[in-house]
Amino acid sequence: MIGYDNLAINHQILLDLPFREGVGAITHDVAKPHHQDVDLINAPTWESLVSGLGVIDLNGTNQYLQLLAAACEDLDFTAGDYSLGGWFFFRSGEADDKTPMSRFLLDNNGWELYHWTNEILTLRHHHAAGATLRTAGHSEGWAYDKWWFMGVSRSGASAQFYRGDIGGLVALPTTISDGGLINPEACVQNLYIGRDTTGVNLHNGKLWRPRAWGRALAEGDWMKIFDYESHWFGV
Description:
Blueprint: E1 13-16, E2 26-28, E3 37-41, E4 45-48, E5 54-59, E6 64-67, E7 82-90, E8 98-105, E9 109-115, E10 121-126, E11 134-139, E12 147-155, E13 158-165, E14 168-171, E15 175-176, E16 191-193, E17 204-213, H1 219-229
Antiparallel strand pairs: 1-17, 2-3, 3-6, 4-5, 5-17, 6-16, 7-12, 7-17, 8-9, 8-16, 9-10, 10-11, 11-15, 12-13, 13-14
């Protein structure tokens, strides 16, 4: 049996929340750089799918996950490539802007991944200086009320979104800001799963195994993850 750290897909993995606990107010980051307890704020609901997989349901009003800034400095992504991924269920209603993952200060530093009411999913970088305060890449068609496998790989000034469902995994048309994705400035904010730094745009829906890597995963990498995990979701 190949151990977690020796799996090629886990090369440079920085965050991995498989939600193995199934109960309680913390969940454990199993990625080797951290091995931190991530706090579940305001008692998110632990839920089991028909397959038996344990997921977390957030109410879209005051529930989210939090990893303190001191424990996630390697999620700055101020230089070099990175990737974000996981399984997300966007429930219609509550905040129009739902934030699966974020670590930023608005128009100053950091990054965020957010889903807008027009079913667009955006990776956005924030910047403190110059004429450009935000740069971004986005993809369309992220419908409400179903499970999606989501991956986004940032490489240089560009990014590529991937999406998986019953039809399989596809690389999506991804629109990038004029001038490309500029590196975000260093950030000292907490990592949030299910909300943004302002506390306004909370994720209304479910999620499983949000992850981050310090490299740009290729389409084949995302395909391996999707193929291995999709059976839990009836895909």
